[in-house]
């Protein structure tokens, strides 16, 4: 009660802006070292896989971000034991699961809760998960997931907004995906691990997180071969056992810091990464004029003068990741010459362009291609994050721009980046998370100088 009236009081005085924002004073090159956390997209599949055993699975290096915490809540809601051992370590035990329904409140917050469909179908032969709608980056059908489950003998129907998958007997099958899908590859692989007989998946996604989910499942006793290639063979086993497993580093978080270093003409060593997973980003950065050094588990990005233009097309791994496309657009907006970015994975991933143009960039979108005429500098402005990765890109733009930028709707960014502002500050970035007009004024006073 007390908190609510304090809130109303602040709002009456016009001080509360009502949403978390970042406020950024640009112009400081980012310099120093930053450590990368566990891969969010790997961890989502891994959490679902972990509940397929009736023994405890201890997972390390889980990122403490909203998407992961929402999935942990959904898993707890199923009756599984979820014990947070420390900020990045969680113990899960699926032996106590009694509820195979994942309602819309979870799916609304986090689409990939649908991995519980594959995991529960494999383990219990039944699951009900709210049907995910479209999202900010476009319509995102899950027909390939369902095609896989059906090929294995399950029925998959939509009832009252829920997808209900059910079978008496889950059988191995030969499945050829119509398009390369990370989600469908992981979801069907999860179910196939406990199916009867052999499943062969063709035209699979080869992303490092697909491999990481397969590695966890194999550590739990599954028999999966070929993850990381386009054909995955899975011999079903009767049950899985407990395990102790550490999630791989997040290649998109790493890439975001690499690009932030490049955009601010900085010098940043990004630690705790697998440089191989970053190769396509590394080679693009070199192509446009950055120096990139690779070490065993770190990469250093040094950017001195103005960068040059490039041509980008997003593709499934090992191609240029769609999740790094908005951050790349910021670099190219500041580069010399005209660049193009073609988005071939999601139809609606240029929503940030209008926001970036408010900061002075010269970008036009024609169909699924953005044409970027490079400019020497961006100017601070008030912008809104349209989705997770575009939000991160606007933060990079703010760090590189002259003057003050505010980024609204940072809830999207917090879904996937742990301690984002704090890590950027440790590199010399002037950025604060603020919630009131007073905090904004305080920040502005602190950066005048
Ligand atoms: C995952 C990532 C996301 C990344 C994307 C592409 C997670 C939680 N999210 O999303 O960050 O941007 O991979 O690298 O890991 N498609 C269909 N039918 C399907 C499945 C997919 O048509 O059944 C289409 C999608 O609309 C899209 C393309 O296939 O055009 C690729 O999507 P997919 O790889 O499945 O993306 P997600 O797994 O949703």
Explain what you see.
The protein is α/β, with parallel strands linked by helices. The protein has 16 helices and 24 strands. Strands 22-23-1-24 form a four-stranded mixed β-sheet, with helices on both faces. It has a four-stranded mixed β-sheet with strand order 2-15-17-16. α5 (115-124) packs parallel to α7 (182-192) and α9 runs parallel beside α11. The longest helix has 13 residues, at 251-263. The radius of gyration is 22 Å and the shape is globular. The two termini are 41 Å apart. Residues 1-14 have low confidence and may be disordered. Residues 41, 44, 112, 140-145, 179, 181-184, 205, 321-323, 345-346 line the site of uridine-diphosphate-N-acetylglucosamine (UD1).
Topology:
Elements: H1 2-12, E1 16-25, E2 31-35, H2 40-50, E3 56-60, H3 66-77, E4 81-86, E5 89-93, E6 101-102, H4 104-109, H5 115-124, E7 126-130, H6 143-151, E8 155-159, E9 162-166, E10 174-176, H7 182-192, E11 198-202, H8 208-219, E12 223-225, E13 231-235, E14 243-246, H9 251-263, E15 267-271, H10 279-287, E16 291-294, E17 298-302, E18 311-313, H11 325-333, E19 338-342, H12 352-358, E20 362-366, E21 369-373, E22 382-384, H13 388-400, E23 404-408, H14 411-414, H15 420-426, E24 430-436, H16 437-447
Parallel strand pairs: 2-15, 3-14, 6-7, 10-11, 18-19, 22-23
Antiparallel strand pairs: 1-23, 1-24, 3-5, 4-5, 7-9, 8-9, 11-13, 12-13, 15-17, 16-17, 19-21, 20-21
Helix pairs in contact: 2-3, 2-5, 2-8, 5-7, 6-7, 7-8, 9-11, 9-13, 11-13
